[in-house]
Amino acid sequence: MGRNSNIVNFFTMLRKDDPDQQLVYYQAGIGTYTIPQIAKPMMAKWHKLMDTMVGVHLDAHVMDRAGDKICLFDTARALAGMLHKIGLLPRDNHQQVPFAYKMYSREDKRGWEQSAAFKKAFSIDVDIELIGVWDTVGSVGFIPKRLPFTTFNTHVKAFRQALALDEHRVRFKPNFFNRPTATEMELGLKWGEKHGNTKSSKKIDQRHALRQHERSYTRYLHCTDVEEVWFSGCHCDVGGGAVKNEVRNNLARISLRWMIRECFRLKTGILFHRDSFKIAGLDPSTLWPRVKERPEPVTKFSGEPPKKTRDLTINPLNGAFTNVDDFVNEEEEDLADALSDKNDMLKIAKSWWILELIPQKIKFQTDDDAWVRKLSINRGRPRVIPKQRDEGVKMHRSVQLRMKLKEEENGKNYKPAVKLLPGVEPIWVD
Fold it and tell me: Which of 71, 175, 225, 380 fits as disulfide partner to 130, beta carbons 3.0 to 4.6 Å?
């Protein structure tokens, strides 16, 4: 049996039987697309590898779809950015999609001017109800590629991200949601206002110029409702895909449940198969018709601990998994999942250490909003949480449960790899 990621499990739970009520679409991610012209197997493998590294076929991963409410999940920031910059094309105008994407990905002033004109002439200005992502990272390969409006987007009403406390690979630094400052929200920077054509402006890198364009061509609509919560485990323990599907309990189920609960809290109207909730460890009666307050966490099982594996059957009518195992409640599922092992790729696949020992450019933001770039050798160092004192650090309550009950390989209780500053205490959320 395979190893489904959280986005696949999430998609499996969605109702797909009534397109008039809910239209769903799943696009295979970066690294899964090969253009038809590449006929030779070796070339196909090469392009797939290059796509994984730099997203050379990123334009083929973008699909337009109209609807009353738009919700995007997983690696959805580029599509959200395109909707913000280009707008939503009418249903029968799909021939314009490749041209629109080229304008979206063009970062110079001319490209921005063309995008604004194109949006006014051909597109519909839409808002995005929710973007939900699991541990998005700033670079997925050796050559980072940043597209417009992928770190902030004022057309997005709500943004939710589950982040991994224990990931420590250099190429998996988290990509946080960037909140515009109060000045940017009120005015924005116009092209040439700050830097002009002075000699010093030549030193401004492409990313800085891209941010300047974003501010210039943004009409601030929403102060996005942002919630970024930290969970125990590494990248694949939060995004899923670390264990086989028949393994009943694992860390990734916790962030999956949290994301589903947020969909109900935000009243997105997303429709799920009722029979599929229990396979994720959820009781649907706690989510609908209203989201109930969660009970206190439990520290022991009411009966026998759950079996390590589970039987999965597929409902032939809707294609959704049906759980035939006994289900007690979400609190006991949290307990079993929180005690599951984490999957540290620097221990599982030692080849990742090659990148850890090569000097690489890193970029981070200080507490005073200044961006710092430097050359560094990561050596497996943990992630850094910015603005801890200003914005606080939100952790899921299952982290606290794991810290109390989970014994690590060193014989000591679990302690997150991420370090908190002196005097900073986690804000526990459910």
Answer: 71
Average pLDDT over residues 330-339: 97
| Residue 162: φ, ψ to 5° | -95, 125
Query: What φ, ψ does residue 290 adopt, rounded to 5°?
Result: -140, 155
Q: Which amino acid is at 327?
A: F
Can you give the chain as a three-state secondary structure string?
A: CCCCEHHHHHHHHECCCCCCCCCCCCCCCCCCCCCCCCCCHHHHHHHHHHHHHHCCCHHHHCCCCCCCCCEEECCCHHHHHHHHHCCECCCCCHHHHHHHHHHHHCCCHHHHHHHHHHHHHHCECCCECEEEEECCECCCCCCCCCCCCCCCCCCECEEEEEEECCCCCHHHCECCCCCCCHHHHHCCCCCCCCCCCCHHHHHCCHHHHHHHHHHHCCCCCCCCEEEEEEECCCHHHHHECCCCCCECCCCHHHHHHHHHHHHHHCCCCCCECHHHCHHHCCCHHHCCCCCCCCCCCCCCCCCCCCCCECCEEECCCCCCEEECCCCCCHHHHHHHHHCCCCCCHHHHCHHHHHHHCCCEEEEEECCCCCEEEEEECCCCCCCCCCCHHHHCCEEEHHHHHHHHHCECCCCCECCCCCCCCCCCCCEEEC
Phi, psi dihedral angles at 48 (to 5 degrees): -65, -40
Task: Decide if 231 contacts 396 (C-beta within 8 A).
Answer: yes
In the predicted structure, residue 362 carries a pLDDT above the cut 80: no
| pLDDT tens readout for residues 127-141 | 889 999 999 986 544
Of 273, 321, 266, the C-alpha closest to 14 is: 273
Q: How far is CA 53 from the centre of its chain?
A: 18
Residues 6+ apart with CB under 8 A from 129: 69, 70, 71, 157, 158, 266, 268
At residue 315, the pLDDT reads 60
Q: What is the dihedral of CA 374, 380, 386, 391, to 10 degrees?
A: 180
HSE toward the beta carbon, residue 187, CA cutoff 13 A: 6
Q: Determine if the pTM surpasses 0.90.
A: no
